[in-house]
Amino acid sequence: MHAMLEVVNAILPEDKPRYLMGVGTPQDLIEGIRRGVDIFDCVLPTRLARHQAAMTLTGRINLLECCSCARPAPHR
């Protein structure tokens, strides 16, 4: 993907937005931005949430296995 972005960047006009579809990992987003991508479209955040997962600063976590899930819910 990164090599292809280098190729198309040389072809695409600089005054038009650059759109990258299907890329959504944090590292891929950063690499896309470094290569001039302006707009991203990805299902990864929705897919992760659907499967009870989330991205954090330290990586992906499974929300069903986290320590807070073991705590009882507060009584009201």
Describe the protein in words.
With 76 residues, the protein is of the alpha+beta class. 34% of the residues lie in helices and 18% in strands. The protein has three helices and four strands, in the order αβαβαββ. β1 (19-21), α2 (26-34) and β2 form a beta-alpha-beta unit. The longest helix has 10 residues, at 2-11. The radius of gyration is 18 Å and the shape is elongated. The protein starts with a helix and ends in a 14-residue tail after the last strand.
Keywords:
single chain; 76 residues; alpha+beta; two-stranded parallel sheet; two-stranded antiparallel sheet; 3 helices; elongated
Low-confidence stretches: none
User: pLDDT average, as an integer?
Assistant: 84
**Fraction in beta strands:** 15-25%
End-to-end CA span: 51 Å
> What value does the Rg take, in angstroms?
18 Å
**Tally of alpha and pi helices:** 3
Structural class estimated from helices and strands: alpha+beta
Order of helices and strands: HEHEHEE
For the largest sheet, list the strands in their spatial order.
1-2
Topology, number of strands: 4
Helix content: 25-40%
Mind describing the biggest β-sheet?
2 strands, parallel
The rough form would be described as elongated
SSE blueprint:
Blueprint: H1 2-11, E1 19-21, H2 26-34, E2 39-41, H3 44-50, E3 53-56, E4 59-62
Parallel strand pairs: 1-2
Antiparallel strand pairs: 3-4
Put the structure in a nutshell:
Helices cover 34% and strands 18% of the residues. It is of the alpha+beta class and 76 residues long. The protein starts with a helix and ends in a 14-residue tail after the last strand.
